[in-house]
């Protein structure tokens, strides 16, 4: 059916164009021979082709454009005729003898254009006559194109202020009246299309209407171009008349398009001064109209206007733009009880952007918008709609983009509440946005309370929310997220040691809820932050006894010991061992022998009980020897115990070459250059001899199993030592 219809339409269009061209040819012949009577006869026949009802708007437009081009030539001919002395008034009478009404009106408009130019009658009278006459065509498509033609030829001939066709004192009203009347009639024709034909063709009709909507919208554009339409005229006459037409037509497509047109074509300052009138129309629109898009565009325009220069900001305050928009949005959401959550969130998002542009200093306004959003969301539970979630992310990102400072955003009490309504995935996205904002702007977050609030905001990265399993989490994404948290922990800094200790405790409380998967990422930065604090505490003004309750290195080390212990449950013994050795070194710098000894003991226990992989053992033993060699805090007895243990571990490694290397490394433990009491030549020699023995044994084993003595690398290394 559809294919046949399209083919038929092509045929009818082709036939129409052929008829039009044939009559146009005869018309040209008549024009060339200055034969007015024939010219009118053939032009009327040519225009009769536009009387068809068989074409869709798109095809009709092709036919109309060809006729339009021919009418331009005819208009030039009429101009020439008047120059030759033919009376324009007679001509205006003459074309009204055409047999059919549609050709008659097209010819009348064409002559009318010349009539106005001749200035033999006031422009307003001719225009009034034409706009009234056009009522003769009530078929929607034919009527719309005819009135579009009238609008086209009259655009440059309106009796506007400063125009050559300017009339008496009331001239602007005449121009406005003409355009408004044409607009009203065109809108009626356009809306009527909706109610013609069977219900099953509703979609087709709506598509055709959307193709024709610009013909109606053009009138509003013409109105906005009239010089004489100043703010007062717009406020008193133009806007109320247009809105009356929009509200009364009770048609969803027309209301949505025309409201958008009003917002787009008239200047921003007009919208600002007539905000109340404009917003008053919204609740009167049909419930199915997509108000969120239209209102969002209005707020977007006003936001851009506010951002364009600071001089316009007083105007916004003067008209109380924020409270008017806020009330209007409240009313719209109330009136449309079944508005999807996406609509409400989009409106609040636009309002928040507007508020941030116009009143950046009024945090209470921004918080009010977020509060209203929370109230709307509270009836919904978690959001399922992806588009709504995206809008929430936009809503939450707006204050970050504006203030570039999370500390300011943390003052918005409703900000975390909005975060509660998004799913855990979106929560993570938002948390990453927040962390990136902190990194980019190098924000200093320097009190424990703010850190607590911040970690509550980014809890999607800190722990699993509502039991979300992490089976489906992408490994690389997870690492990137946790590394961001680690970077954030490193950025938290306060020169006041008491406050810094509180920050560390706050962070610790949050990250320990993260479960075994996250701890290997988050514990190390916390440990190093704490060690930084220990170095701060070693400053010159340190009180060795410390006041009761004040932060001392000892206190920090106790906290560190408990923190590193949490890695046992992961399990991450190698990481824990490295961190214990780092802490031992820091305790050494603080001259706390018992603390350092305790950390070494923990490292040794880990080595004995948890580290079983031979390669990991080799790495661990070299770390232990390296750290022990740098320790100067130990007394003879403690040092001997630890050294003895280390050499014992070295000799027990699985592979002979590994044993040999570990044993000759131990020789360093008995000879430390900058400590005189640590130069024990005998024991150094003992170590090296023992290493030699192991190297010999390794060579013999190689001989027995492979039949060759193997390399002499180990002997060279021992010789170097």
TrEMBL record:
Instruction: From the Swiss-Prot or TrEMBL record, state where the protein is found.
Output: Cytoplasm; Endosome membrane; Golgi apparatus, trans-Golgi network membrane; Prevacuolar compartment membrane
What superkingdom does the record give?
Answer: Eukaryota
Q: Which InterPro entries match?
A: Vps35, Vps35_C
Q: What biological-process GO terms show up in the record? A: protein transport; retrograde transport, endosome to Golgi
Main location per UniProt?
A: cytoplasm
Q: Does the keyword Phosphoprotein apply?
A: no
- What would be one Gene Ontology cellular-component term for the protein? endosome membrane
Answer yes or no on keyword Nucleus: no
Q: Which residues cross the membrane?
A: none
Extract the Gene3D superfamilies matched here: Vacuolar protein sorting-associated protein 35, helical subcomplex Vps35-C
Ordered alphabetically, the record's keywords are: Cytoplasm, Endosome, Golgi apparatus, Membrane, Protein transport, Transport
Q: How does it sit in the membrane?
A: Peripheral membrane protein
Please explain the role this protein plays, according to its UniProt record. Answer: Plays a role in vesicular protein sorting.
Family, per entry: Belongs to the VPS35 family.
Q: What is this protein called?
A: Vacuolar protein sorting-associated protein 35
Species lineage, top-down? Answer: Eukaryota, Viridiplantae, Streptophyta, Embryophyta, Tracheophyta
């Amino acid at each position: 059916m559809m294919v046949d219809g399209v083919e038929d339409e092509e045929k009818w269009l082709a036939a129409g164009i052929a008829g039009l061209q044939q009559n146009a040819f005869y018309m040209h012949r008549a024009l060339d021979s200055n034969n007015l009577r024939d010219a009118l006869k053939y032009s009327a026949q040519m225009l009769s082709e536009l009387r068809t009802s068989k074409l869709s708007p798109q095809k009709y437009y092709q036919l109309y454009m060809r006729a339009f081009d021919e009418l331009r030539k005819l208009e030039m001919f009429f101009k020439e005729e008047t120059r030759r002395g033919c009376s324009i008034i007679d001509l205006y009478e003459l074309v009204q003898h055409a047999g059919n009404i549609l050709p008659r009106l097209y010819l009348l408009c064409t002559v009318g254009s010349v009539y106005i130019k001749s200035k033999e009658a006031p422009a307003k009278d001719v225009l009034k006559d034409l706009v009234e006459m056009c009522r003769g065509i009530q078929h929607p498509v034919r009527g719309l194109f005819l009135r579009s033609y009238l609008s086209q030829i009259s655009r440059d001939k309106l009796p506007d202020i400063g125009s050559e066709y300017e009339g008496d004192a009331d001239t602007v009203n005449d121009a406005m009246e003409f355009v408004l009347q044409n607009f009203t009639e065109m809108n009626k024709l356009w809306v009527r299309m909706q109610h013609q034909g069977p219900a099953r063709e509703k979609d087709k009709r709506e598509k055709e209407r959307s193709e024709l909507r610009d013909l109606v919208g053009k009138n509003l554009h013409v109105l906005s171009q009239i010089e004489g339409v100043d703010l007062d005229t717009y406020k008193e006459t133009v806007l109320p008349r247009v809105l009356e037409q929009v509200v009364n037509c009770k048609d969803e497509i027309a209301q949505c398009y025309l409201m958008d047109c009003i917002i787009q074509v008239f200047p921003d300052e007009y919208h600002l001064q007539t905000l109340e009138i404009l917003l008053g129309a919204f609740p009167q629109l049909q419930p199915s109209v997509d108000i969120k898009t239209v209102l969002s565009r209005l707020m977007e325009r006003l936001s851009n206007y506010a951002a364009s220069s600071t001089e316009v900001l007083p105007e916004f305050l003067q008209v109380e733009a924020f409270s008017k928009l806020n009330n209007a949005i409240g009313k719209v959401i109330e009136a449309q009880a079944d508005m999807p959550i996406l609509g409400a969130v989009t409106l609040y998002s636009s309002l928040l952007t507007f508020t941030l542009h116009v009143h950046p200093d009024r945090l209470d306004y921004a918080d009010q918008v977020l509060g209203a959003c929370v109230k709307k969301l509270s009836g919904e539970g978690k959001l399922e709609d992806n588009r709504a979630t995206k809008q929430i992310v936009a809503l939450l990102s707006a204050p970050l983009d504006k203030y570039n400072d999370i500390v300011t955003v943390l003052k918005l009490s409703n900000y975390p509440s909005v975060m509660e309504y998004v799913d855990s995935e979106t929560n993570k996205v938002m948390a990453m946005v927040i962390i990136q904002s902190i990194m980019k702007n190098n924000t200093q977050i320097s009190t424990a309370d703010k850190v607590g609030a911040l970690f509550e905001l980014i809890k999607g990265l800190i722990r699993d929310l509502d039991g979300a399993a992490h089976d489906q989490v992408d490994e690389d994404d997870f690492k990137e997220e946790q590394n961001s948290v680690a970077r954030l922990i490193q950025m938290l800094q306060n020169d006041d040691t008491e406050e810094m200790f509180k920050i560390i405790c706050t962070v610790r409380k949050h990250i320990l809820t993260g479960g075994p998967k996250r701890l290997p990422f988050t514990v190390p930065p916390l440990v190093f932050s704490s060690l930084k604090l220990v170095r701060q505490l070693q400053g010159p003004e340190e009180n060795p006894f410390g006041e009761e309750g004040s932060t001392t290195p000892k206190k920090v080390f106790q906290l560190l010991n408990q923190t590193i212990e949490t890695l046992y449950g992961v399990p991450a013994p190698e990481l824990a061992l490295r961190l214990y050795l780092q802490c031992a070194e820091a305790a050494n710098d603080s001259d706390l022998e018992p603390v350092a000894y305790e950390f070494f003991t923990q490292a040794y226990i880990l080595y004995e009980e948890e580290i079983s992989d031979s390669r990991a053992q080799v790495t661990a033993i070299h770390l232990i020897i390296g750290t022990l060699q740098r320790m100067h805090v130990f007394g003879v007895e403690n040092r001997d115990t630890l050294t003895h243990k280390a050499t014992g571990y070295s000799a027990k490694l699985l592979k002979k070459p590994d044993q040999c290397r570990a044993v000759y490394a131990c020789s360093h433990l008995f000879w430390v250059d900058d400590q005189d009491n640590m130069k024990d030549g005998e024991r150094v020699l003992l170590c090296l001899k023992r290493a030699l023995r192991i190297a010999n044994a390794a060579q013999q084993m190689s001989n027995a199993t492979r039949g060759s003595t193997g390399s002499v690398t180990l002997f060279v290394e021992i010789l170097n030592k």
